[in-house]
Amino acid sequence: MKSRLRKALIDLTVFTIGILSLLSPFIFQQTRTLNFSSTSFPLMVSLILVLCLILLLFEIQSSLLDNKMIAFLGVLIAINAGLRFLENAIPGPAGFSPTFFLIILTGYFFGSRIGFLMGAMTMFVSGLITGGVGPWLPGQMMTAGWLGQSSSFLKPLINVLNWQQKSGEIILLSIFSALWGILYGVIMNLWFWPFFSTAPGQTWLQSASLVENIGRYGTYYLATSLGWDITRSIGNIFIIVFLSKPVIRIFIRFQKRFSFVIEEPQQQ
Fold first, then answer.
1. Torsion of CA 169, 171, 175, 177, to 10 degrees
2. Which residues contact 178 (CB under 8 A, 6 or more apart)?
3. Are the C-beta atoms of 206 and 182 separated by less than 8 Å?
4. Cβ burial 87-108 (10 Å sphere, 16+ → b, else e)
C-alpha cells in the first residue's frame, strides 16, 4: 500500500510540475514582475529534470523492474536512440520520426510507468548522442514520457473489446499514434513559444488576455508546425501498421521467457 502511494505521489508531482511549466505563461501572464526567460523558466526546467531522475531511481529500486526488465528497457532505449541518430544523419520528410512507435508500443504493452521511462530516457540518451542537449531537452523528455504513459490506457480498452493481435488493435494504435503526432508538436511548441519572438500576431504578450494569447498561439501553430505534425502523424501510422505486430510478438516472447515471481518478504 505504501509503495503504491509513493509511486502515485511521484507520478502526480511530475505531472503537476510539467503542466505548470507548460501553462505558466498563461497562468502568470498578468504578473509583470515575473521574467520567465531568466528566472521562472530555468527553475521549472531544473525541477523537471530532477523529478525525472528521481522517478527513474525509484522505479529501478522497486519491484516493478527486475534486472531482466532493466536490461530489456535499456536495449529498447538504445535502439530508439539509434533510430533518432539515423533520423538526424539521414533526414527524411519534414516532421517524420521513427522513434515514436517504440515508445507507444512499450507503454501499451508494459504499462504506464515503463512507458514513461521509455519516452523520457529515449530523448535523454538520444540528446547526448546527437548533441541535442539544450533547454528544450526537458520538454522533449517530459512530452515523450507522457506519450509512453498515455499509451497504456489503450490496453484495458483493447482487452475489453478482445482485439489483442487483431486488426482492431492495429487500428486503435494507429489512431492513437496519429493523434499524438499532432499533440506532440502542440505541447513541444509551448515549451519555447512564450520566450520566442515571432511574426506579429503570433508572439506571446504578458499584457494580453488569456483568450488573446491562446489565439496568438493558435496562429503561430498553424503557420509553423501543423504541416510538420501532419507528416509525423502519417509516418506514425505507417510504422505502426507495418511494425507493431512483429514488435508486440517480441514483447510477448520476452514476457513469457523471462517472467518472474516476486516473493513477499516474510514478516518477522
1. 60
2. 233, 234, 236, 237
3. no
4. beeeeeeebbbbbbbbbbbbbb
In a domain, 50, yes or no: no
Name the nearest CA neighbour of 239 among 105, 78, 109. 105
Residue 37 forms part of a structural domain? no
Residue 110 has φ and ψ, to the nearest 5°, of -100, -10
Contacts with 155 (C-beta within 8 Å, 6 or more apart), sequence order: 108, 109, 111
Report the number of distinct structural domains present in the chain.
Answer: 1
Residue 94: φ, ψ to 5°: -55, 125
Is residue 97 domain-resident? Answer: yes
Q: Helix 137-151 crosses helix 41-61 at what angle (to 10 degrees)?
A: 50
- If pLDDT is split at 50, 70 and 90, which confidence band does 18 have? confident
| Number of helices and strands in the chain (H, E) | 10, 0
List the one residue out of 157, 64, 67, 60 whose CA is nearest residue 108: 157
Q: pTM of the entire structure?
A: 0.84
**Residue 183 belongs to domain with CATH number:** 1.10.1760.20
Instruction: For residue 101, give its domain range.
Output: 66-257
SS3 for 5? helix
Asked if residues 25 and 213 have their Cβ atoms less than 8 Å apart, the reply is: yes
Contact by Cβ (8 Å): 95, 227: yes
* pLDDT digits 0-9 by tens, 139-156: 788 889 889 989 999 999
Within a domain: residue 197? Answer: yes
